[in-house]
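FAQ: What does a ligand-bound record look like?

Like this one, built around iron/sulfur cluster:
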Amino acid sequence: MNTKMYCNQCEEAAGNKACTVQGVCGKDYELANLLDELKEYLKVLSTQIENDPVGHQKEKRFIMDSLFKLITNANFNKENIRKQIALAKSYTKRDDVVAYEEENEDINALKSLIMGGLMGMAAYHSHAIHLGYEDQDIHNFMVKTLANFNELHDLESALAVVDETGAYGVKVMALLDKANTTSYGNPEITNVNIGVGDRPGILISGHDLADLAQLLEQSKDSGVDIYTHSEMLPAHYYPKFKQYSHLKGNYGNAWWKQTTEFETFNGPILFTTNCIVPPKANASYKERLYATGNCDYPGFKRIPVNSDGTKDFSEVIAQAKTCTAPTEIETGSITGGFAHNQVLALADTVVENIKNGSIRKFVVMSGCDGRKRDRNYYENFAASLKDDAIILTSGCAKYRYNKLNLGDINGVPRVLDAGQCNDSYSWVVIAMKLQEIFKLNDINELPISFNIAWYEQKAIIVLLSLLHLGIKDIKVGPSLPSYLSPATANYLVEHYGISGINTVEQDLTTFG
Ligand code: SF4
Ligand code: SF4
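The answer part, i.e. the structure of the complex:
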């Protein structure tokens, strides 16, 4: 058995190089190798579909789900991955695959960006499909890219695929935006309670709004309250979910704090997607953990799926009834709901404040939070920005500064939260609108800077989308992906102006 592993797909890669013995995320070599094997089967299956392109709807969804399972912190259950590999074997009629290694470090870097982008794309497409929005072009792009992945040998072709991945990133984010807003209404300004009530609660984490919708409906008369965690926070901004009075508030902060915050929640916790942190051996909440969809962890209870595809949350609701109410860890509220529709409704006010000089700058600080200490940078950066600057955020990066009370500019809050990481799409829509209003030839002439925090592969598809749209001079931190070779890093600097972060003081000077 291969007891070695090599994984460098996320920002926590050991020594900023790669995890080779044990993943910092908790993934061991056996799981890492199973995930690698699954990845190779996806390429074989995609090649077979490319050669015989009619039909294959089931296989295309399988590829999407498998890519989702490959995301960092999504699926730690070896049995789940083994079943996926068994399915891949039945689809491909193959019993083994050859491990793939790209020897050219520059091509390898670009392939890592492409693979990360595909994983993020798969997650977003999966959420959209759960709401009835499926795009065959997106499936076909994934299949084509995986089918040709190992044959991509020259830099020019690889760079073209990186750009095309970004183009499909924009497409999938637009699709998910349409799915979310058509299903649940346009996000609107909302104060979200961060305290607790006196009834037992269920904490729902992850990103899948369709799961939340079903849980809310099934629990509405149960005497149990529903709390959101981490990136599920933006659910509160949607009009449809506001109709449920037992959607009580948001409990806790970004994903990586879950091992302490779950200790005090006291009720069941439901994961709908990544980001799972392995519970400690003595965690008090171990018997109250549930998973659904593509995420999983050994010992978590699975949510049953009915024959019509709906989910049965009765067990988690029944368990919640036996629990005590959450212990309060914070009080007050946080404000969000500034997706494109809401911000464009405020366009006159925003434009007036730009014209009269009250708003001088927007800084997009979207992306991921994480447990590395150097992420304090983002908190300090946000707190140190001059008070004529507005922060545009999405993703769990917001938890570094959304409770700092940074005030407002003539009624426009200084931290505008659009929602989940895919809602970075809103900043693109808003930037394009401002470009039109100010009659600018180039989007980069707007007073908008990008200081993005990444951790996992959804942030990569967001980054590739921004690059495809021609956004320049993006800062990426807290460190650049370790798989970037010196030559590819240089290319990104020269063509897109991408750079890593420096000290807060230096970057404040750069951002002006
Ligand atoms: S996902 Fe990240 S932390 Fe986990 S093994 Fe890979 S590089 Fe390491
Ligand atoms: S933004 Fe990234 S790190 Fe944060 S919860 Fe979403 S997927 Fe996880």
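Follow-up question: can I read anything off the structure? Yes, for example: The CA atoms of residues 287 and 300 lie 8 Å apart.
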